[in-house]
Amino acid sequence: MCLAVPGKIVEVLGDDPLLRAAKVSFAGVVKLISLTCTPEAKLGDYVLVHVGVAISTIDPKEAEETYRYLQAMGELDGLDVPPPVMSPP
């Protein structure tokens, strides 16, 4: 199954729309991600990432919900990643 995982942009690198990248935090695990498909993405935004590319921006509530779905489906099993800390319930 192909998945897109939510993450938060913690640093944006570059300003060329085709070459822009970001450091994205996935509940504390930070990866370098391409922003080519999401030119509107900015520092602090949540993005859905598939194979190293941010494919869309999403709001924090949607990011939290997506993470919970992935966890419930067992797609995060075996990963030592704490759940994201979002807004209080």
What's the short story on this structure?
The protein has one helix and five strands. By secondary structure, it is α+β, with helices and mostly antiparallel strands. 19% of the residues are buried.
Give the radius of gyration. Answer: 13 Å
| Strand arrangement across the biggest beta sheet | 3-2-1-4-5
Tally of discrete structural domains:
1
Q: What is the chain-wise order of helices and strands?
A: EEEEEH
Cα distance spanning the termini? 30 Å
What kind of assembly state do the chains in view correspond to? single chain
Task: Tell me about the largest β-sheet.
Answer: 5 strands, antiparallel
What is the CATH architecture descriptor?
Roll
Which whole number gives the mean pLDDT?
Answer: 85
The secondary-structure class comes to: alpha+beta
Query: What's the number of extended β-strand segments?
Result: 5
Beta content: 35-45%
Note the total helix count.
1
CATH topology (fold) name = SH3 type barrels
Summarize the structure in words.
This protein has a single domain, classed as Roll (SH3 type barrels). 15% of the residues lie in helices and 36% in strands. It is built from one helix and five strands, in the order βββββα. The protein has one helix at residues 60-72, and strands spanning 5-13, 21-26, 29-34, 46-50, 53-58. The protein has a five-stranded antiparallel β-sheet.
